[in-house]
Amino acid sequence: xxxxxxxxxxxxxxxxxxxxxxxxxxxxxxxxxxxxxxxxxxxxxxxxxxxxxxxxxxxxxxxxxxxxxxxxxxxxxxxxxxxxxxxxxxxxxxxxxxxxxxxxxxxxxxxxxxxxxxxxxxxxxxxxxxxxxxxxxxxxxxxxxxxxxxxxxxxxxxxxxxxxxxxxxxxxxxxxxxxxxxxxxxxxxxxxxxxxxxxxxxxxxxxxxxxxxxxxxxxxxxxxxxxxxxxxxxxxxxxxxxxxxxxxxxxxxxxxxxxxxxxxxxxxxxxxxxxxxxxxxxxxxxxxxxxxxxxxxxxxxxxxxxxxxxxxxxxxxxxxxxxxxxxxxxxxxxxxxxxxxxxxxxxxxxxxxxxxxxxxxxxxxxxxxxxxxxxxxxxxxxxxxxxxxxxxxxxxxxxxxxxxxxxxxxxxxxxxxxxxxxx
Length: 423
Hints:
Blueprint (H helix, E strand, L loop, with lengths): L5 H16 L15 E7 L5 H14 L3 E7 L3 H10 L6 E4 L3 H8 L17 H10 L10 E8 L1 E4 H7 L7 H13 L16 H11 L4 H8 L12 H11 L11 H9 L5 E2 L6 H7 L5 E4 L11 E10 L7 H11 L2 H11 L2 E2 L15 H5 L3 E2 L12 H11 L2 H22 L1
Parallel strand pairs: 1-2, 1-3, 8-10
Antiparallel strand pairs: 3-8, 4-8, 4-9, 5-6, 5-7
Helix pairs in contact: 1-3, 4-5, 8-10, 11-12, 16-17
């Protein structure tokens, strides 16, 4: 998904506000000639198009006065920005909970769901992840967390069993597992880092446990450009990334993400450092692979958390044309049946506390979800103008920690200062 700078969001919001003041309606659809209310579902998950069509059809059948139609948009942030400029925000929106969501929310274009009743039964920690990214005003919640992912370490259960190792619970144990596997001629990790973003999962899952006062709290301090907070504080995170990177396949820099999924599915490594989002892709190459997951271990297992992000959230405009019909559909989509269907298909964690992920591969992370021992993604706090992924990739290739820290501090100060000046 394409992230946007704060400056772009402000310009977009200003343009939308001007159009609205001039009479432009912020609504994707309206009442049709058939007397029904027609609503647009702005949807970005290509792998879930068929499921959302079914969900819409079921809703339409049960609500004969409303017609909800899915509008799939792969590059939904860019498309949404274009719609805002035209003064036409979609009725119903699916969105990923990342920096782009937070920047949009801070412009005040999304509805506040705090008193809507739609958050009843939603895991409060999962719901709160969206708030750490940005809100329209203090105390608001501008999105409904629908499905979450977990970022830990995926492992091949059969390889672990044959090698006589167990999922580690501390960082020292993880290194011992790597050494044991390596001694048996097994690649401890299967790395594929030709695509720059593939180093970010390790960075986020390590920093989620390392920042014991909270990821969002640390980045909140770092946004104050006063020289008191530096990325040097995250040196232990970067050092562990590089340490783990040494345990694995020799061709890692030449392999892209899809190569990694295929190679891991073929048994070329024991562990794969990605979030649960990678599981369907791995299984597409080997449906019978026996997968498990465990949380990226901290030095002290009491500090270990699972980094979790809102893979899909639902939201709508601040002043929708059809609030009652929108609310009706959102209640429908947030039901146990629809959430279970989506999470089972997409190997995701449901956000309702009455539901649990039933995929065996997710069992290792489920206790952290149950106990709300969750942290948000560190990389979701970076504006697009800071090319974090490229910097992390270069660091894994050259091992120059000092250069990484200096680059991050310099680029962060420059970009965030500009954002602060325009906010």
